[in-house]
Structure formats: C-alpha cells, structure tokens
Design brief:
The structure is a single chain. The protein is an alpha+beta fold and 522 residues long. 13% of the residues lie in helices and 32% in strands. This is F5/8 type C domain-containing protein.
Length: 522
C-alpha cells in the first residue's frame, strides 16, 4: 500500500533551528551477508543517493530508515504487480544485506542555496552524473532516487528546501527525523508527517520509474483504495493506498523491474495509430483502433483527464485503464462513465503504448462533455496523403536541429523550430510547402512536437497556385496535445499546390514556434 506527496511548505530558517536528531557524516555500512531478497537477481537496480550540500548535516540513522522505506515499498509494488497478473515483479535494489540498501553518500560541492527546490535539481543531477563518470561500476541502471536532507525545519513536521519531484529517470525527495516507518499509522503530527513524506517519497519514486499521475477509477476504489500516483500522500499508512493498473502496466516494462538485459532501453520507437474509433455507447466511451510499431507493445494505457491538462501537475485527476494488445496490432477499451468523477467540461483522452524497451509513446485527443454526454465524434484518424515529392518552398527561419523539411517526414521525433539561438524574433512565424503539383483535399493534419513548449496555438493557413500570391484558406486554433494528428476539416474539397502555415502565437506564450509534422487528407 502506498501514497503520494504534494505538500511542500517553504519557510525561512536558521542553522540554530536544526533538530538535535541531526548528526554529521554518513552512517556506517553494516557487514554484508548472504542476500535472499527475491529481486536481488534483477540485472538492473535502483541507484539510491543521499546527497548532502556542504553546509548541511545528515539526519541520524538515515541508511536504516531509508532501507526500511524502500524495502517496504519494494514488497508493496510486488503485491500490486501480482494482483494485476505480472507476477511478483518489483524494482531491484542494490543491497548490502537483506535489511540494508546500499545508499551512496555524496557530499555536494556547494551550499544548500545551489540545491533549492526551484532550480536545484539540475545541479544535483550534474554532480550525480559526475560521480558515475568517476565510478561507473556503481551505476546499476538509469534510474536514480536522490534523497536530500531538509534545509528548512521551521516547522519540524513540514520540512522543505531541496528538490522534491520526478524528472525523467531522476527523482528527488527529502529526509528529516520523522521520515521513519515506525511513525506510520500513529496519531498526531508525527504520524501525519510520516504519511505525507514517506508516501511522497514513494510517489516520486514512481515517477522516477516512469509512472504518470492518475486517479483510481471509481469501481477499483473498494479493492485498491487511493492511487499512489494521485493523492496517496494523504492516505499512505492510514488507509488502503496502492498502484493503479496504469502504473503496474508501466512498471511491467521499466528497466529496474526487468529480469532480462537489453541494450536498447528507452531508445526511440516509431509508433503510429493507423485506425481509431471512439464512440459513446451504452453509458461508456468505447475505444477501438490499430497501430504500427517498430518495437513490440507490452501494454496499452488510456487516460481520461479533465481540464486543466497539458501542463505539469495537472493530471492528478486523470482516471486510467490498462489493457493488452488485441491480436497483433489492435486495442479495445471500454471506459464506463460511472468510473469518472465528473461529467462536465473539457477532457483529454490519452492513449499510451508501453513498449518492450520501456519507451512509452503517447497520443492525445481533446473532447468535451455536454449535458453529461461525451462529445467525441471528432476523435478520429484519417489516412494522410503521401508527402513524396513535397518540398519546403520557404520559411521565416529554422534551427540546424529543427529544419523546416522535418514537417514532411512523418516522424514525430523530428520537427521544425523557428530560430532561438541567434535571436528572439516574435510571431508570426511561417513555413510554406510545395506539394509538387495541384492536389485536392478536404482536410489539414498537424502534429505538435512531443515537447509542447512553443506548440502552435492560433494559426492561419494560406493557399496559392503559383507560390507567390496567397489567399487565406482557414484560421483556427490547434489544441495543446502531442503525439496525435490534429485534424482540421475544411468543409469542402480544396485544390491547390502551395500551402503556407503561419503562427500567430504559441501555447505558453513563447516567442518561437515549432511543429513536428504536417499533411493533408481527402
């Protein structure tokens, strides 16, 4: 049973307020013994660091306390993996013995001001990476949990200071005297603090092992409780708190859960949804489709995420389902509306494919509820016309690693990016396409870059038969979603040779623009 953490208090404090339970220096390592831990044979293991700025002390007995937390979490993860049919898989830990995790003590080069919550994560990561460069044998996987002693203890039960989040395969949490499993389930401030911060540590670890935020669907709450990757930090150690099925599906292909070695962990996968049908039927959203992938798909996840979405930390309320591939290239989901917590406003449907090498490819589609009914008729995949023979007629600017022709290669991993290194020109930005000959079509298709910073928002598209004189074809707004093709229906068939895409602004109000792919459909 688990939890999540989102409570961060930011107070000022002085060194004189540090709790007397703090003592300097690393804990001594116990002597190694024979290890019987069932996941000790995992070829990849979580790297665990205790990172200490040079003006901060450690908290007493940190290795023992962290070992108890991680070993408890390891077993709980295995319990939920087994419930969902994956066997007793869990993340590997680099152990000294069955009760002690090998926690790497790393003294920072700088004081705590260099490693604060805002902006400190990259600085810690750089020193961890440098440590691995000097000690390559200590790197047991690409996944890293980095614990930093709290700096601000003005409220001893709500400490703060260091980074506390997951970022890629690196995740950060803080240590303090009440980060101790012995306080879980107890009453009072110490018990509440242990719930928030131990659950929070496991929540951030979930991110570091590839899991996304989600909310347990209603029908699963009686048997599974609160999702670790949602509000579990308020319940961990107090009431039932577990992994959702979307988290276990993700961990099934996470490196530290693997019992086999491979050389292509988290490398790029080319994956496309080739057919998609989404409809409202018998009180449920029914999703059917087919896909083509360059690597085997182990699991598929569906999220229905109420607005706001598309930005960090806006998806704690995304209800999720997981399933297996149907046949060799299909998928089928039934999402009953009785499993939703609200039936109003805007939503985003996301479909994630978890590949055998741990990579996940996501596709997003926006829809809305009206009178408690999902309006999803516009969620579809069209067959795009080949871009063979197409070329770039012109552009306002591009980067060497974001060339304009990338929008014609049908590859979401490449993109056009307006200039940002040599200057900061503002919108509008534009790119013009020569389709080689006059072509007839009734719709335009756009795909935003996976990194949505600078994603196109309000757009004008112009047409031309000679490439010099332009007529406005359509003005519209692209949703802030990545992975999926965004369809713009023109209402009637258009025949032309040249098209110019002009940005008016971008999501997030960035001065630059970018776009992964562009196409047309009949």
């Amino acid at each position: 049973m688990f939890l999540c953490v989102f409570l961060f208090a930011f107070y000022s404090c002085s060194k004189s307020k540090v709790d007397p339970g703090v003592k300097p220096g690393p804990d001594p390592d116990p002597k190694p013994t024979e290890i019987t831990n069932p996941w000790n044979k995992n070829p990849y293991k979580l790297n665990v660091f205790y990172f200490v700025p040079n003006d901060v002390d450690t908290f007493a007995n940190f290795k023992n306390r962290l070992s108890q937390i991680l070993l408890r979490g390891q077993k709980e993860f295995a319990d939920d993996m087994e419930k969902d049919g994956y066997g007793r898989k869990s993340f590997g830990l680099n152990l000294i013995n069955d009760k002690t995790v090998n926690v790497i003590y790393l003294k920072g080069k700088f004081g705590k001001e260099k490693y604060m919550y805002d902006g400190g994560g990259p600085n810690i990561k750089a020193e961890v990476d440098a440590y691995f460069t000097q000690n390559p044998d200590d790197k047991k996987s690409v996944h890293n949990l980095i614990i930093v002693p709290a700096y601000d203890l003005s409220d001893p039960y709500r400490p703060s200071g260091p980074p506390y989040y997951g970022s890629g395969t690196y995740c950060y949490a803080l240590d303090f005297q009440y980060l101790d499993v012995n306080y879980l389930g107890t009453s009072g401030a110490r018990g509440n603090s242990a719930t928030v911060f131990i659950g929070g540590l496991l929540h951030e670890l979930g991110h570091g092992l590839n899991a996304s935020h989600d909310k347990m669907i209603k029908s699963m709450v009686p048997s599974r409780g609160t999702s670790l990757m949602s509000d579990g930090n308020y319940t961990y150690g107090k009431s039932l708190t577990t992994l959702s099925r979307s988290s276990t599906a993700t961990f099934n292909s996470s490196q530290t859960f693997s019992t086999e070695t491979r050389s292509d962990w988290y490398t790029t996968v080319n994956n496309e949804i080739t057919e998609l049908s989404v409809k409202y039927e018998n009180g449920s959203i029914v999703i059917d489709g087919k896909f083509q992938s360059s690597k085997k798909v182990n699991d598929i996840i569906v999220w229905n995420d109420p607005a706001p979405f598309g930005a960090a930390n806006t998806d704690y309320d995304a209800v999720s389902w997981s399933g297996k591939v149907v046949g060799t290239d299909g998928f089928h989901f039934v999402c009953p509306l009785t499993d939703f917590y609200k039936l109003e406003g805007d939503y985003q449907l996301r479909i994630g494919f978890v590949h055998e090498n741990g990579t996940r490819t996501n596709f997003g589609y926006n829809y809305s509820f009206v009178n408690s009914i999902p309006q999803i008729s516009g969620v579809a995949v069209h067959t795009l016309e080949p871009t063979t023979g197409w070329s770039i007629l012109g552009k306002d600017s591009e980067e060497w690693d974001g060339i304009a022709s990338s929008i014609l290669d049908n590859n979401r991993n490449t993109f056009w990016h307006s200039t940002w290194r040599a200057g900061q020109p503002t919108h509008p930005h534009w790119v013009a396409v020569d389709m080689g000959e006059v072509r007839s079509f009734k719709g335009l298709a756009f795909r935003q870059r996976d990194n949505l910073n600078g994603a196109l928002k309000d757009v004008k598209v112009y047409q031309s038969t000679n490439g010099t004189e332009w007529t406005l074809l359509k003005t519209f707004q692209l949703p802030n979603v990545n992975g999926s093709w965004i369809n713009i229906d023109l209402g009637s068939t258009i025949s032309t040779r040249y098209l110019k895409i002009e940005s008016q602004n971008s999501w997030g109000d960035f001065y630059y623009a970018n776009l992964a792919d562009f196409g047309i459909y009949k």
